Amino acid sequence: MCGIVGLFLKDKALEPQLGALLTNMLITMTDRGPDSAGIAIYGNPETGRSKLVIQSENPQIDFPGLDALIGDRLGAPVTIAPKDTHAVLTVPAGTTQAVRAALAEHNPSLRVMSRGDSIEIYKEVGLPKDVAARFDLPHLSGTHGIGHTRMATESAVTTLGAHPFNTGDDQCLVHNGSLSNHNSLRRKLRREGMHIETENDTEVGAAYLTWRMQNGATLGEALQSSLSDLDGFFTFVVGTKDGFGVVRDPIACKPAVMAETEQYVAFGSEYRALVDLPGIDTARVWEPEPATVYFWSHADGPSETSKAA
Q1: Residue 161 contacts by C-beta under 8 Å, 6 or more apart in sequence?
Q2: Could you give the number of structural domains in the chain?
Q3: pTM for this entry
């Protein structure tokens, strides 16, 4: 039993409030998962720059000078912005894979939480309110984001085991449920070259979607194929650079509710996660259908909405 939240903003005036809105939604879901928590925030990308969010158990030792070291490796300017156990490395666009390799060579204990042009993931062990305070999540701004509070069932309670999982540039996934074929699928995806670090079933789901999209599928098509390729029960919320998508397995035993207004689209494991959103009293509220893919994108306009059955 985990808690999922998501918020896709149509109204740019709400972007400075995204972190605060998502944090409040996540804290409301604390009793669904008190083990660990995390949020993925998508902001407006900086032209010509990408970023990696990294995590360290010893940030006071590991972070100082890391920007200069990576910058020397790349032959280009790199900046670092520490935030508690995490830090945002801003690097030249298109170099995230090279930076990841350099980090692994320099200090294998450093963990990459996210990489891409616009995504930042912050996650740690602990209650949502404590994780939010450590990373000052309410003051983050952005266009859309997803969050998760975890009750561990498939793997250990660790930072790496917390959600969201990032397995491709600007892609991430949060999950409520359990996948029964994750071990065999993990082996297959690793043979296909996918980087999977944990034994968590959710990371396999995230890597599967990334693999499908790297092979030409749209987000909607990748989510649609998950209904036949993934065994088990699940509610997925997946984030991309342009938007987010939702899918529930054909049985749909995990709770989910959505709301839409002219300002936003919101997702919660329960309606109480949405009650403090602006204009919720006049929102269209519904339960996502089983085996149905919903996705929203900023790519074709701020109010683009699609649904594929």
Answers
A1: 36, 150, 152, 155, 198, 200
A2: 2
A3: 0.93
